[in-house]
Amino acid sequence: MDRPNYITPAGYATLRAEYEQLLSTERPALVEVISWAAGNGDRSENGDYIYGRKRLREIDRRLGWLSRRMKAAKVVDPAAQADRSRIWFGACVTVADEDDAERVLTLVGDDETDASAGRIGWNSPFARALRGAAIGDVRRVDLPAGEREYEVVAIRYPSP
């Protein structure tokens, strides 16, 4: 990776919980089913065996991906942000567009984005445009629907 994989403590805990759940619960149960299915005879037409092996490959791939993401993760606590007057990682930002429609966005790690909840990735075009902005700054954002201007109305960080 050429850039750090910033992530909040809650985001890292979510990745870790998924990793632990797959490794300690789902994978062993699946290995048991595959072993049972293999003992039933012909494997070429054994649905439990075929599906189990396919699912096991999916779980192993996901475990590998989670492991790499956690190894590359740089956990940053937004509550410990030194400069709270500007937009940095973990900021909860209220922006207004040209039509005075307000949006509340939280800048989080790329692995914990959820657009429907207003959580945008730190490396998204919108977040890159907002980085370093202060209240009252106007930033131009190039979106798929076209270029728009947003004014920073408020900046909040979690309490330490």
Automatic annotation (TrEMBL):
GO terms for molecular function: DNA binding; RNA polymerase binding; translation elongation factor activity. Keywords: DNA-binding, Elongation factor, Protein biosynthesis, Transcription, Transcription regulation. It comes from the Bacteria. InterPro entries: GreA/GreB_C_sf, Tscrpt_elong_fac_GreA/B, Tscrpt_elong_fac_GreA/B_C, Tscrpt_elong_fac_GreA/B_fam, Tscrpt_elong_fac_GreA/B_N, Tscrpt_elong_fac_GreA/B_N_sf, Tscrpt_elong_fac_GreB. Residues 85-157 form the Transcription elongation factor GreA/GreB C-terminal domain. SUPFAM superfamilies: FKBP-like, GreA transcript cleavage protein, N-terminal domain. Residues 5-75 form the Transcription elongation factor GreA/GreB N-terminal domain. GO terms for biological process: DNA-templated transcription elongation; regulation of DNA-templated transcription elongation. It holds the Pfam family GreA_GreB. Necessary for efficient RNA polymerase transcription elongation past template-encoded arresting sites. The arresting sites in DNA have the property of trapping a certain fraction of elongating RNA polymerases that pass through, resulting in locked ternary complexes. Cleavage of the nascent transcript by cleavage factors such as GreA or GreB allows the resumption of elongation from the new 3'terminus. GreB releases sequences of up to 9 nucleotides in length. Belongs to the GreA/GreB family. GreB subfamily. This is Transcription elongation factor GreB. It comes from Sphingomonas ginsenosidivorax.
